[in-house]
Amino acid sequence: MIAPPPVWVRRVVLGPLVVALAVLMVPTTLMFALVVGAALTWVLPGRLRVVRVLWMIAFYVVWDAAALLAMLGLWIGAGCGLFADRAWYRRAHVRLARGMLALFFWQVRWTLRLRIVVDVADEAALPDAPLVVLSRHAGPGDSFILVDRLLGLAGRAPAVVLKDTLQWDPAIDVLLHRLPSAFVTPSSRRRPGQPGARQTVRRIAEGLTADDALVLFPEGGNVTARRRAGRIAKLREAGQDRLADRAEGMANVMAPHVGGFEAALDGSPDAAVLVVAHTGLERLVTVGDIWRELPMDKTIRLAGWLHPAGAVPRDGAAREDWLFDQWGVVDRWIGDRVPS
């Protein structure tokens, strides 16, 4: 994807452009027609793919603009940023993220007919310690679903490390720069001296509290057959045949990278670890896949396995084996629920 523009362009041009688009869109006949069309998707036969897609795009623009205006109000309330280091300012953004994601997924469930079933440790079971969350990565929007569950069920403020291209979205850009999260530039575009993913993860992990959860996707991207085969090939090229054999035996996941996980535990050695599996979106790889599946009429299932602080080995090689063990659990859980 194209690298995001400089910060001043994103704040002065992209953000106001989204707000202006929403202001122009809401009172128009087009918006009214989309609302009516979206309502009719429950009554009329057929998939009505075009109406659903147009409605979700329009809703997202308005949703993005509303989040930007709310964050502008918080920034003004903080003395135009003078008191942005206060605890209440961060808590306000966590509450805003929780409310905006709840609204977004209410709309997704209605328009795309998605049902989310969660079997993850609840708030009472989570320890009073920082939390590192390791999740598989498969299908569009799975990171949003996971963050929504952490905010809604666990009450944790999510710390996420994302690709810098997501800064094209003004609301995500502003919100995550005000929470303990970061955007990482790929090595192909990284300037000399600019921190990479491991350094960024460790920096964020060092500041974690018992109210936070650092979310990592050890596979590094959505699972595809090509990426899975490439990861196995790289393990063999590095002389790690044993791990490559283990990766070949896991049909539903890709071999995990241990680097970010190690950096997280080095930065926050007292953190508990929550391993998360989910299924329901793995068939949605390309835009064509998503288009064919509309409306999705799917049930997304999440499960989690909590490991207390100190349960993860300290040694690097042992940590990698431990991570592959957990990914084996995830692979078997998925295999029991997804047809071959």
Automatic annotation (TrEMBL):
InterPro entries: Plipid/glycerol_acylTrfase (IPR002123). The keyword Membrane applies. It comes from the Bacteria. Keywords: Membrane, Transmembrane, Transmembrane helix. The chain crosses the membrane at residues 12-45, 57-84. Residues 131-281 form the Phospholipid/glycerol acyltransferase domain. This is Phospholipid/glycerol acyltransferase domain-containing protein.
